[in-house]
Amino acid sequence: MTKVVGYVPGAYDMFHIGHLNILRRARSGCDYLIAGVVTDEVVRRAKGRDPVIPLAERLEIVRSISYVDRAVVDVSTDKMVMWRQLGFDVIFKGDDWKETDKGRRLERDLGEVGVRVVYSPYTAYTSSTALRRLVAANLANDGS
User: Which of 19, 54, 85, 94 has CB atoms 3.0–4.6 Å from 122's, for a disulfide?
Assistant: First the structure.
């Protein structure tokens, strides 16, 4: 029987329940799950800001999650780069990518090599962006 290898890339900055949810859902959709933790440079390019938590720490956190069989450093916004290295069968993304230009591009490019794209519900109420805002507001209120 052929094992289905899944890949779930992310920044995993300020690890929260949304991250855990996508890893849990991804694990249920494959036999072997690889989590790609994107570099600070990739985060900067994709989100326009640096991550709060350093790459080595984000990688160690993700590596320690029981749903993850292997954690790797993801070096590119182009997921074909990681597919060439890892040869995964399915990629998991938050559904905030669904029906967007970047999602359609991902589906097209990876579809050409037989990779399925599976979207998981995005946890909008708890996100790294929301946590950043909360921390910033608390710091402002504290006068720090």
Answer: 94
Q: Which domains does the chain have, with CATH numbers?
A: 5-142 (3.40.50.620)
Residues 106/76, Cβ–Cβ less than 8 Å? no
The per-residue pLDDT string of the chain (144 residues; one tens digit each, 9 = 90 and over) reads: 679 999 999 999 989 888 999 999 999 999 999 999 999 999 998 888 899 999 999 999 999 999 999 999 999 989 999 999 999 999 999 888 788 888 899 999 999 999 999 998 876 656 556 655 655 566 667 665
Q: Which residues contact 18 (CB under 8 A, 6 or more apart)?
A: 94, 122, 123, 126, 127
Residue 37, beta-bridge partner list: 10, 73
Q: How far is CA 63 from CA 2, 43, 56, 108, in A?
A: 24, 19, 10, 29
